[in-house]
Amino acid sequence: MALVRRIDRTRRALLWERLWRRLFVLPWLLMAIVALAVSGLAGALPGPAHVLLLVAVVALLAWPVARLRGVRTPGLDEAVARLEATDPRRPVSALLDRLTESQATDPLTRALWQAHQERMAEAAVALPAARPAPGVLAADRRGVRVLALLALIVALAWAGPRAGDNLRAFLSPTLVAPPGAATVELWISPPAYTGRPPLRRTAAVPPAGEGPAPEAGESPLEVPAGSQLSLLVTGDVARPRLVLAADDPGRLLPPTENAEGAASHRLEVTLDDPAADRLGLADGPRRLALWRLAVRPDRPPEVAFTAPPEGDSAHRLRLAGRAEDDHGLTQARLILGLAGRTSGPRLAEPTVHPLALPSPPQGAPREVRLGSALDLTAHPWAGLEVTAHLEVSDGAGQVGTSQSVTLILPERPFRHPLAAELIAQRRVLILAPEHTPRVAVRLDALAESALARPERVRQRPGAALALVVAARRLRLEPGRAGRQSVIDLLWDIALDLEEGDLGATRRRLEAAHQALKDALADPHASAEERTARTEALRRALADHLAELAANAPELPQGLAEQLDRAPGVRRLDPSALEEMLNEIERLSRLGAGDAATALLDRLAEQLRGLDGLTRLSPKAEERLTAGASVLADLMALRRDQAALHDETFSVGNRSTPPGAQVARAGRQEHLRHRLGGLLARLGELLGRLPPDLGAAELEMRRATEALAGGDHEGAASAQGRALARLDQGLDALLEAISRTAGGVALPGASRLPGGGEDPLGRPVPDPADGPKVPAPSRQRAEDIVDDLRRRLNEPDRAPTERDYLKRLLPGFR
User: Fold this and answer.
1) What's the CA gap between 294 and 271, in Å, rounded?
2) Span 201-229, mean pLDDT?
């Protein structure tokens, strides 16, 4: 069996020799061809030459393979001859030999043959299997084949990472020239109402095969929904296609010509799909450009009340709300509806009242606080229960609505009898239109009474004629339009009766103020227009101040000077208002519209408190006279108490004669009794006492007890607290008397709001004290004295600090 295996191995070796002699050149050919492919030299050939090269390569590789057709499988004799070629005895052939018949009959011959066969078998078994020996080295004695290996090594080192691409390019020739370079430009223009700037991106596309495919960046292009996308592709492209999502089939860019006449492709698309997540451009399999995209939808605005709407002391409806939008708010409004009216003739349509929005330097405000005071006293539903909600709009027309609240719409009280009666008839027309004929009869009666007694209409005959017109209109036009015109007319008549010329000047002033405010907020308004509106406001203000002076209440002699100390009393100086208007005009010329608007609003806020100015009634004048007397006595009491406090403080705990000690205690008790009498008078005048004055009386009692016991430091401390309480009580009393006078600017006064500051925040001298001592300095000195006394009366102060304060106080007496 071993011999048989050696013979088979020898046959395979012979077969390999025959095959290798024919295929010996194949691996070296492959090395040379791969070296040529990897080097990229073939890529420089034109398409046809490249194809011919590939054909030659295939033919060259097929030549050694074709030579395999003449290869024959070695036979047994050839294998045996190759196996025993190393042994001249040829043992395998000897084993295959046989005796002739004549030789086989001779026993001696057979014995010799048998021994010969045994020796040949041992020799055959010892024969080694033949190894392949194709002898190909003799065909290339100079080693030319090594050049192919060297060429492959050099080509791989030269190509580096491009080896794979070069190999693929070698195996895929193109008969058509590859696309050349191209340029991609895109513009994304957000909607104008967003206030966002446009985006521009460019991409330089290299020729096909000369660079990697473009990849998307990490951060996407964030654009609002509704943005306009414009794409321009110039260069060597055939059919560029825009893809906006993974499942988007794409949109072809139609061909066009650019400004230089070069061929290009352009497309405009509106980006409104939030699912669009990319901006991909491809020309067939070739990727031109790729950007990540994020389309942000425009959220509707949000608005809410931050506090319930309520009326103020001027009968205006104060609103407090907050609104926001992702791109900016364009409008805000209050919507009123009549509560509890769902059917019938009383049904009224909701009314819309615009609200002012701030004007930021750029675009629309994105987050605002709605704080408005609306004068809705002329509204038909004033005094009725209404529903109110806020609405805001953004640039896209989306509307946000707040929750609805229910409230009583503020109404204005009318003290003039005829004006109050007209408002009552107006209410009947609003709530019970079926009683229109009855209202017409009543208006006729009021008109006859007004014509017969002109004093009922303050010598204003036009009011009586207007009542006649209103009654006639209700009879001729009893429908909704006629009723509405009469409702408006009755309000105007009642307002004229109630306010007289003061109301007309106030309305002209408000109109001039709003006109100037609109001009300051309008970026297109010219400087001449703003100057003209400032002059109109100046004239309206002068007319209104003149009417205010004519209607100012007459105060008792000396009361205005005493009211100067009241923190709640406002003072108005026409020259200061004139200076304020000049400052507004100067800011407007400089382009500081926001600062001018803020100053204008401050002026309007100061003038708004003058709306309730009327002449005082006899009862109010009597109360003011009594109040002036109490104020004078209280001021004298405070001066006496301050003098006693300084005296007690200067004595300290030094021993004094018993008579002086008893005298000071008696003086303190007398001051306490004086304060008790004043408190009784105040109780009759005001109906209630300022709590600080009661606390001052208690501190005086403690001071009396301390003086009687010889405790001068305790007495001084109690007296200091009594002075502080007296000051606080005086302030409260002055505010109460100011309210009795209407809380308005008083005639003949020169101090301005803020206690010695003009509307621009600058100190103003007090003429009562002469030109040398400005009012702010005097007030500051009083504040310092009060603060020193407060610190001195604190029991936990160190003795050294109390001595220092004692030395300071005499300099301020």
Assistant:
1) 10
2) 79
Return d(Cα 280, Cα 265) in angstroms, integer. Answer: 15
* Other CB atoms within 10 Å distance of the CB of residue 349: 7
- From the number of C-beta atoms within 10 Å of its C-beta (0-12, 13-18, 19+), residue 619 rates as exposed
Q: How far apart are CA 737 and CA 685, in angstroms?
A: 10
Q: Which two tokens stand for residue 153?
A: 């090594």
Mean pLDDT of 29-54: 78
Mean pLDDT of 636-660: 79
Edge to edge, the sheet with strand 240-243 lists 221-224, 286-296, 278-283, 240-243, 251-252
Q: Which amino acid is at 549?
A: A
Q: How far is CA 547 from CA 292, 419, 462, 544, in A?
A: 69, 20, 20, 5
Angle between helix axes 47-66 and 26-39 (nearest 10 degrees) is 170
Q: What single string gives the DSSP state of each residue in 190-256?
A: --GGG-PPPEEEEEEEPPTTSSPPP---SS-EEEETTEEEEEEEEES-SSEEEE-STT---EEPPEE
**Distance from C-alpha of 387 to C-alpha of 408, rounded to nearest angstrom:** 9
- Alpha-carbon distances, residue 745 vs 593, 749, 750, 774 (angstroms): 29, 8, 10, 21
Tell whether the model's pLDDT for residue 462 goes beyond 80.
no
pLDDT value of residue 400: 93
How far apart, in whole angstroms, are the C-alpha atoms of residue 157 and residue 161? 9
* CA 267 to the chain's CA centroid: 33
In whole angstroms, give the CA distance from residue 545 to residue 554. Answer: 16
Nearest to 433 by CA among 343, 341, 345: 345
Alpha helices in 348-479 (DSSP H): 417-431, 436-452, 461-476
Per DSSP, the three-state class of 263 is: strand
The 8-class DSSP code of residue 443 comes to: H
Pick from 313-322, 746-755, 802-811: least confident: 746-755
Greater model confidence, 584 or 96: 584
Note every long-range contact of 67-72, with CB atoms under 8 Å and residues 24 or more positions apart, other chains counting. Answer: 67/22, 67/23, 68/19, 68/22, 68/23, 70/22, 71/15, 71/18, 71/19, 71/22, 72/18
The CA distances from residue 122 to 8, 109, 118, 146, 711, in Å, are: 19, 20, 6, 45, 150
Query: Span 510-525, mean pLDDT?
Result: 80
CB 241 within 8 A of CB 290: no
- Whole-angstrom Cα distance, residue 128 to residue 307? 112
Nearest alpha carbon to residue 270 among 233, 244, 301, 239: 244
Q: How far apart are CA 462 and CA 467, in angstroms?
A: 9
- CA 313-314-318 angle, 5° bins: 80
Contact 145, 139 (CB under 8 A): no
One-letter amino acid identity for 775?
A: A
Query: Among residues of the chain, what percentage have pLDDT more than 90?
Result: 7
Backbone CA torsion sign across 359, 361, 363, 369: negative
| 456/471 Cα distance (integer angstroms) | 19
Picking from 286-300, 371-385, 640-654, which range would have the lowest pLDDT averaged per residue? 640-654
Residue 401 has pLDDT above 90, yes or no: yes
Q: Is 427 in a helix, a strand, or coil?
A: helix
Q: What is the mean pLDDT of the chain?
A: 76
pLDDT confidence bin for 208, thresholds 50/70/90: low
Closest CA to 556 of 607, 494, 496, 626: 626
Is the CB of residue 201 less than 8 Å from the CB of residue 247? no
Tallying the residues shown for the chain, one arrives at: 813
Give how far the C-alpha of residue 533 lies from the chain's centroid of Cα atoms, to the nearest Å.
Answer: 34
Q: Are 548 and 613 in contact (CB under 8 A)?
A: yes
